[in-house]
């Protein structure tokens, strides 16, 4: 851009309107450019017959649409990123007693997918049994992986055919306590071609969204691990406390019994001595 001349398309349109004497003082507030640009253009004393009115209106309309699309695109990207993060936060489920939860992912052949999960419990005292059953079914409904009585797992596999792969968490046949399962699924995410990032800004926002999702996954996993360890520590502390109270009660009872036994022993001894003296 030349020094003293406007550099953006919107400013050029504003100058062209000024040159054609189509902008009045009352219309300046309705134009997409700043009043300083118009004042700067008025000092150039351009002739008024450079562009037609229709051409200027079309260019001005085009510039306004470009600005509106840029603002709308940025807002849409931010809302989409926040919505995607909210969906990731939904990877914590409450697995009720004697129930199961199943999910599915559509994969293509040779795609790789990883499922990691950690079982926790919000209720104090329920951390004694954090085991569930976990399995993965292929599109033919065959169980390609099954683990029984596990509290955490990290399973990766490669799809051998196209279709829907189902993975399930089961709390059937175990305790009556509900359990919290935090799970993450990592793999290939297919995006339609028309939704691919065409703008560098959109591409960077998508990368930032993915990075935030990974951080959210790690935070969710750490929260569940912290809850499990806290419940275990509190349960151990409660058991130690009650065991100490039991030991104290046994010790006090043993002391009382020994005092009573010794007292009774000496009383019996004195009675026998008196009876012996009477006989003699």
Automatic annotation (TrEMBL):
GO CC terms, sorted: endomembrane system; membrane
Membrane topology: Single-pass membrane protein; Single-pass type I membrane protein
Pfam family, one: EMP24_GP25L
Superkingdom of this protein's organism: Eukaryota
PROSITE patterns: GOLD
Residues of the GOLD domain: 100-187
Protein name, UniProt field: Endosomal cargo receptor (P24), putative
Chief place where the protein resides: membrane
Localization (cell): Endomembrane system; Membrane
UniProt KW keywords: Membrane, Receptor, Signal, Transmembrane, Transmembrane helix
InterPro entries: Emp24-like (IPR015720), GOLD_dom (IPR009038), GOLD_dom_sf (IPR036598)
Protein family per UniProt: Belongs to the EMP24/GP25L family.
């Amino acid at each position: 851009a030349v020094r003293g001349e406007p550099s953006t398309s919107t400013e050029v349109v504003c100058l062209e309107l000024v040159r054609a004497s189509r902008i009045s003082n009352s219309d300046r507030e309705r134009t997409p450019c700043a009043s300083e640009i118009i004042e700067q253009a008025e000092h150039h004393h351009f002739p008024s017959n450079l562009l037609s009115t229709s051409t200027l209106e079309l260019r001005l309309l085009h510039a306004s649409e470009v600005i509106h699309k840029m603002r709308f695109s940025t807002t849409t990207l931010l809302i989409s990123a926040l919505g995607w993060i909210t969906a990731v936060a939904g990877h914590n489920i409450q697995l009720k007693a004697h129930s199961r939860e199943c999910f599915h992912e559509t994969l293509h052949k040779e795609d790789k997918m990883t499922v990691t999960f950690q079982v926790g419990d919000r209720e104090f005292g329920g951390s004694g049994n954090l085991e569930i059953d976990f399995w993965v079914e292929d599109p033919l409904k065959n169980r390609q992986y099954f683990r029984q009585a596990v509290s955490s797992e990290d399973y990766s596999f490669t799809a051998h055919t196209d279709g829907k792969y189902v993975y399930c968490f089961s709390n059937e046949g175990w305790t009556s306590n509900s359990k919290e399962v935090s799970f993450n699924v990592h793999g290939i995410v297919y995006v339609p071609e028309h939704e691919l990032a065409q703008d560098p800004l959109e591409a960077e926002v998508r990368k930032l969204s993915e990075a935030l999702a990974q951080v959210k996954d790690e935070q969710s996993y750490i929260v569940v691990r912290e809850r499990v360890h806290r419940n275990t520590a509190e349960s151990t502390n409660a058991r130690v406390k009650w065991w100490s109270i039991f030991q104290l009660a046994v010790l006090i009872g043993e002391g009382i019994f020994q005092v009573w036994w010794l007292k009774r022993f000496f009383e019996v001894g004195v009675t026998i001595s008196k009876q012996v003296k009477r006989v003699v």
